[in-house]
Amino acid sequence: MKLVFLIAAAIFAAGCSVPQFEPAECGVARPALREFYSTHFAGDMLFSKERLEERRRFLTDRFYGTLTGATGDADPFTSGTADVPRAFRIGSCERPAEGRTSFEVLLFWRDDSRTEQRAIRVELEQTGDTWLIDKVNN
Question: The whole model's pTM is what?
Fold first, then answer.
């Protein structure tokens, strides 16, 4: 009987996994990222100086500065091209350093000719009590 119990306990322990919890900063930064992408997807996503100004409040000064010199209509916040996705989902998060988070953002394209999913990384930086986008790796 003891042997059966030990075998059952070993199988149960092997089948259970320890849940992976995100760092606390991820839970605090996630709403800011979700608000940004919800706002971004609700409007015209192709790049322009006017649209950059509309999104300014979500960006660090450093990232905003790098984007002010951009030309063309490629979307720097999603694909990096003029081929913009139709939907997004915020995925996993890491904390690479104190006051910084890095999120996986999944982008989705779906129309009559294709269904595609692509992941990008978006880094946020804490500025006071606010989390701002500091970098997009697309």
Answer: 0.83
